[in-house]
Specification:
Structural class of chain A: mainly alpha
Number of strands of chain A: 2
Shape of chain A: elongated
Strand order of the largest sheet of chain A: 1-2
Number of domains of chain B: 1
Radius of gyration of chain B: 22 Å
Shape of chain B: globular
Largest sheet of chain A: 2 strands, antiparallel
Number of helices of chain A: 4
Helix content of chain B: 55-70%
Order of helices and strands of chain A: HEHHEH
Strand content of chain A: under 5%
Distance between the termini of chain A: 11 Å
Radius of gyration of chain A: 28 Å
Strand order of the largest sheet of chain B: 1-2
Number of helices of chain B: 17
Oligomer: heterodimer
Order of helices and strands of chain B: EEHHHHHHHHHHHHHHHHH
């Protein structure tokens, strides 16, 4: 197998590639934050009676909350801010498909590249 | 961690120079590398698992995720003690799976470490602001100072960093042990009140789905222990130092995690524990001892600093490796002519870390880091199977052979699947966005960028041809 000689990349090309990577990083990480898609689905299950008993706190718990500087009113939003786990099957299937597709592509494309590497490395000998 | 870059040719290092690393490290240093990056997870982050599933869920995932990381450590020890090349899992992927996988694994490493650094900086800033107690004081200045000063230290050279990190890590660890024994752990009712705080009614407030959901932040107990492999070219005896150092690090962290959970769950209601940024510092405050409070305050800062310092170095090293192999523009492969550091990679990642430290909050930054980490562990579970298949036992010299193969790989893969599901339960959109990013950047690499990469020169290990090729 003939040895592959990669082209030399111009400075402008390198700058362009760096810009592509930077934009991709920010889009992937920043966009979900900007669109409010990041973060768990929590919501406050509000109670009318804001007492330690109503909030499900026993005497020991209440004394610790108070030691930490909280009253039933100020602790209410922490205690009642709960997850509501609902399995959204279409989203779960999409997520699974994206993950599986990603890894399948990775391994298959890597293998094609790897065969070139091995052929060039070992056929030279 | 310390990565000393020393050009093979003693001339001013220019773009693309080949570098060699100094073999100066022993098992204790490997221990310090792993534990130094990870220990901050005991000071914040793990407790969000309690928010997702309750205090008992946080304990269950502490053990089960400990099993995940024990598998990681076993697998990593075998592969890295054989692929003794800088870059850790990146070098493994390059030699075992292929270039595109290596490119992705390096990105996993960069994002996991950069976002861990962001989390460390946010923790440090928030801790100082909370301690100061001055109304209107913003954490941004402290975050920026932390990231910039540590980047500057890394830019200037990090020969002493490992020893400094070792001391910092040891101090932070000792503070956890001191707190543990200060609260009379053998006695319930005096300081610790586990039975009254974790009751049958609130131990698992969301049931077993909460336990699954808690896997997401359970990862934070140990995330980064695999960083020990980054030092593969720097240890004197990879076959001995890497397995011993990594496994000792895991044992250390398992003990620290168990002590941390026991103290914190016995001193705070789970609703508070699950949302505080400083569970250990809060526990120290609740003892009423100013000495313990100040000790844990300082330990929190030290743990964050040690972790961020190691993360900057590791992320820059992975980015540098991508440039050196031309997976990214070779501009990143420059070594500073005076300080022998990958300075362009350090500087490139600096504004990215700063930007996300300002726009993301702590649990979002942690989630970014966890996502990249879990993608990497998924790769590792498949990688070890391919490694044993391409080079069966006896075909090449292995520094260490992990037992019970393929059981650790199967356990690791299954726990990664559970963790992906856990992430879906709270941060599914982020997961899809990040995988979409990795997919698109992979297309870019495979169909465009790879033409600039040399082929056979990527394979540098003195191994026979892999079976099946």
């Amino acid at each position: 197998m003939s040895r592959y000689t990669p082209p030399e990349q111009s400075k402008a090309g390198q700058v362009f590639d760096i810009a592509v990577v930077v934009v991709a990083i920010f889009v992937a990480l920043w966009l979900p934050l900007k669109l409010g898609l990041a973060g768990a689905a929590k919501s406050i299950d509000a109670l009318d009676a804001k007492t330690w008993e109503a909030l499900g706190q026993n005497a020991t718990m209440a004394s610790i909350w108070e030691k930490l500087g909280y009253t039933p009113e100020t602790a209410h939003d922490i205690i009642q801010n709960r997850f509501h786990y609902v399995i959204d099957w279409p989203t779960l299937i999409i997520m699974a498909a994206v993950l599986i597709g990603y890894f399948v592509f990775l391994f298959r494309a890597s293998d094609r590249e790897y065969r070139d590497v091995i052929n060039e490395k070992f056929d030279d000998k | 961690m310390t990565i000393a870059l020393e050009p093979a040719v003693q001339e001013p290092a220019a773009q693309g120079d080949r570098v060699s690393l100094l073999r100066v490290l022993g098992p204790a240093h490997v221990w310090a590398l792993g534990v130094g990056i990870v220990l901050v997870g005991e000071f914040t982050g793990w407790n969000f698992a309690a928010d997702k599933g309750g205090a008992l869920a946080a304990l269950i995932v502490c053990w089960v995720v400990g099993l995940l990381y024990t598998s990681v450590a076993m697998i990593d020890s075998e592969v890295t003690s054989t692929v003794a090349a800088a870059g850790g899992q990146y070098a493994q992927a390059k030699h075992i799976v292929g270039p595109l996988m290596a490119f992705n694994v390096a990105l996993f490493l960069v994002f996991a470490y950069t976002m861990l650094e962001v989390s460390d900086a946010i923790l440090l800033g928030d801790t100082i602001v909370a301690k100061a107690g001055v109304e209107g004081l913003n954490h941004n200045a402290f975050i920026a100072a932390t990231i910039v000063v540590l980047a500057w230290l890394n830019y200037r050279g990090v020969l002493m960093t490992l020893n400094v990190n070792f001391v910092i890590t040891a101090l932070a660890y000792v503070s956890i042990v001191i707190l543990f024994f200060s609260v009379s752990p053998w006695t319930q009712g005096a300081v610790l009140k586990l039975n009254e705080l974790v009751t049958p009614g609130n131990a698992l407030p969301y049931g077993w789905i909460g336990v699954i959901a808690a896997f997401q932040f359970g990862i934070w107990y140990y995330l980064g222990i695999e960083g020990t492999t980054q030092a593969a070219e720097e240890v004197r005896s990879p076959a001995r130092s890497l397995p011993y150092g990594t496994m000792a690090g895991m044992i250390t962290l398992l003990i620290a995690a168990a002590m941390t959970w026991y103290v914190c769950a016995s001193m705070m209601p789970w609703e508070y524990l699950g949302t505080t940024y400083y569970p250990l510092w809060d526990a120290a405050k609740l003892t009423g001892s100013p000495l313990l409070e100040n000790l844990l305050f300082i330990a929190t800062l030290l743990a964050a600093l040690a972790s961020a310092n190691g993360c900057i170095n590791d992320a820059a090293r992975a980015w540098f490796s991508l440039g050196r192999d031309r997976y990214l523009p070779s501009w990143f492969a420059a070594v500073h002519p005076r300080y022998r550091t990958p300075y362009r990679s350090i500087l490139f990642l600096l504004p990215i870390a700063l930007a996300f430290a300002f726009i993301a909050d702590l649990n979002q930054a942690i989630t970014f880091s966890i996502l990249s980490g879990v993608l990497q562990y998924t790769f590792m579970s498949i990688n070890i199977i391919m490694f044993r298949k391409k080079w069966p036992l006896g075909s090449i010299r292995r520094g260490y052979t992990h037992p019970f193969h393929p059981l650790p790989a199967i356990v690791l893969f299954c726990l990664c699947v559970v963790t992906f599901f856990a992430i879906f339960l709270g941060f599914g959109s982020q997961l899809i966005a990040m995988v979409a990013f990795y997919f698109l950047i992979s297309l870019w690499f495979h169909f465009y960028r790879y033409k600039f990469v040399r082929r056979g020169a990527q394979f540098t290990m003195p191994w026979p041809k892999p079976q099946g090729y």
